[in-house]
Amino acid sequence: MTETKDKRCAGQHFLHIISTDDAIKLYDIMIQQNNYIKWIHFEHIKPKLNREQLEIMTGTKPHDGPYFAEWLSCFGSETDILSPYRQPLSIARNTTIYTDFQRQINKTCKKFETHTIALLKYHVALRSKEDDLPVLSTGRGSMHASHLCDLMHCVLKEHIVVESMEVNQSRRDCRGITLSITPASTTSPPYIKMATPCRHG
């Protein structure tokens, strides 16, 4: 019987060998290094509603306007949001920022014969809430780090999950959540009378 080879890259290997507590610490340091903000990608709302319009809607608790305004809010670096590419977090072997993980950094750099470890920022977010990560890749039958918000620069932990490539790709055709809204009247704000979940639940 042959042993399955672990095909983790240097970044995934590093996330594999640190503890969950260290992953949480790494995530917190990463957030402290840049100006991270919450924002809503309004192209995901049709017809378009802004945060103020969402937040004044009443509804059956907890699924009222403020709930959906928060649920739709992503979290990311102001610099990253403007980039069309996935943003890596680079950790150099001689780092002065991530010294708490020096032993694991050295071990990873030695194993992969490199001086810098490149991690995807949302993988750090995912690892900080998971005891371990499977090998993440793009091949058929592989596991993905999936953005439920469909925004690759988001590092909000609640928006990122591990799931199969097939489920992740099926989200491309998902119509999303449908809100049935009773318009505002002269005496009351708009009311969410029904929230129909997407086919993914």
Automatic annotation (TrEMBL):
Residues 104-179 form the Zinc-binding loop region of homing endonuclease domain. One of its GO terms (molecular function) is endonuclease activity. Coiled coil: none annotated. Gene3D superfamilies: Homing Intron 3 (I-ppo) Encoded Endonuclease, Chain A. SUPFAM superfamilies: His-Me finger endonucleases (SSF54060). This is Zinc-binding loop region of homing endonuclease domain-containing protein. It holds the Pfam family zf-His_Me_endon. InterPro entries: Endonuclease_Zinc-binding_loop, His-Me_finger_sf, Homing_endonuclease_His-Me. It comes from Adineta steineri.
